[in-house]
Amino acid sequence: MFRLGLIINPFAGLGGSVALKGSDGVAQQALALGAVPKAGMRTAQALDVLLPFKDQLHIVTCAGDMGENLCRDMGFQFSVLDLTLHSPSTAADTRAAAAAMRESRVDLLLFAGGDGTARDICAVVQDSFPVLGIPAGVKIHSAVYGVNPRSSGEVVAMLLRGELVDIKTQDVRDIDEEAFRNNQVRARLFGEMLVPQAGEFVQGVKMGGIEHEDLVLDDIAADLHNRMLDDVLYLVGSGKTTEHVMHHLGLENTLLGVDVVYDRQVIASDVSEQQILSLLQQYPKAVIIISIIGGQGHIFGRGNQQFSAAVIEKIGRQNIWILASKAKLKSLEGRALRLDTGDSALDVKLEGLMELTTGYHDRVLYPVKA
After folding, report:
1. Chain segment 267-282, per-residue pLDDT in tens
2. Based on the domain organization, do 18 and 102 belong to the same domain?
3. DSSP 224-292
């Protein structure tokens, strides 16, 4: 019987859709702003892959929303750790659960959260036994996560089928969220954990630093300047590439948020999902402008949860403009761009070749997949 540890951070990712840039210390504020918890749903997507293996699997988990409720609802065999947890749950509960998992000798610890959750677990387990994350947070720089929830489930399924799965230590990184909310990125290494490696199912660490390709980015900005129309709403995503474009256009931007441009002016800054949906009721024509995360290749689901499934569905695949230098694309070494919108059906709809702007009147077709 395979013993799978399961820890869900119920508040992971809450801050994303309401533009809080994270959930550490602001979960209640996010809920008050209308954020909807999604960590349980994303964990269910991972566990759905494991339903055919119910007879081979025993899940060791935590009480309530940290795992018990979902395991019961999905019909898995499970046991609950004897822990006294806070209500609502805290980072201390995650650490206590990780320590109990280590003592109970689970074969693999599966957890749902973001970089803060990975950091809490790493502080306790280090590289003492294998772990794998289900991406559910706002910022996911650490190389301990599946590329999306189903991918995390697929890795566990490979183990249950007896397939050979490599394992190696991977970085756990986190940033200062207070600085992050003020457009400052201060990321550092907090340790390493043992992570199963299964090809395209497990993401790499987010590449840091700033590309020194100013001329290329100037060309991309000039191309966008020519393409932008006065009667279209432009939703400009986060990142250094889009920041460079905005500055080239003489516009202020939020490095780690979503800004709204209309008639070549910024009409709203650092908007939330609900603010975007409200604007889309007023403006019938809209375009999403995003860049890719270097090293990982994600275009949705990493730091830009304001572009929710509802937003993307309303705008449409044909109105998504992706910006990337060819150097950044080459760093992916042929891997497809990744989707993790939180809606698996939408991810499938978005799959295929998409046009990327790589310079002035310079575009390439590049594969995108869930």
Report:
1. 999 999 999 999 999 9
2. yes
3. HHHH--TT-EEEE--SHHHHHHHHHTT----TTS-EEEETTEEEE-S--HHHHHHHHHH-S-EEEEEEP
